[in-house]
Amino acid sequence: ENFQLPPAFGQTAFYQPGMLVVQAPKYQFVSEARAQVRELCVYLERFDLESIPWIVLADDAEFAAATTHNFVWVSFTRANPSHDIDGVGAFTENKHWGCKGPLVLDARKKPHHAPELAPDPDAEKKAAEILKPYGY
User: Fold this and answer.
1) SS3 62
2) What is the CA 107 to chain-centroid distance, rounded?
3) Which residues of 110-120 are buried (b: 16+ CB within 10 A; e: fewer)?
4) Contact 57, 24 (CB under 8 A)
């Protein structure tokens, strides 16, 4: 009820019940990104998020939540578990990390990531010609 995000964060989309994808600002610098995630986590402490155990930060929330393929691709190829996991109400107790609210995974594209692969129409055409005699 009355749920909202800080101004820097945009569109939201549920991938599945309890799995919220949030469109986050473009990732530019590590320190800035960590501050954005921390700000979001602290901000979200005011809401009852019991039905949302997992939040994924993405460059395009609608794309990431559209299909299982997209969700898995975005979540697990753009996040480093040792660097990109935080949580709402995060705490450390007896050297064990935990959080009282949703786990937050920063799955935005990072500057060190390779560019996305794009289909090459010429290569596709050549492949189709080569494979045509074989029924492909």
Assistant:
1) helix
2) 3
3) beeeeeeeeee
4) yes
Report the residue count for the chain: 136
The CA R_g of the chain, rounded to the nearest whole Å, is 19
Nearest to 34 by CA among 116, 115, 108: 108
Alpha-carbon separation of residue 70 from 31, 56, 66, 76, 111 (angstroms): 27, 12, 7, 10, 20
Q: Are strands 54-58 and 103-106 parallel, antiparallel or unpaired?
A: parallel
Side chain identity, residue 41: C
Report, as an integer, the average pLDDT of 65-76.
Answer: 97
Q: Which tens digits make up the pLDDT trace of 76-99?
A: 999 999 999 999 999 999 999 999
Q: Say how far apart CA 100 and CA 60 lie, in whole Å.
A: 26
DSSP 27: P
For the segment 72-77, the average pLDDT, to the nearest whole number, is 95
CA torsion sign for 70, 73, 78, 83 is: positive
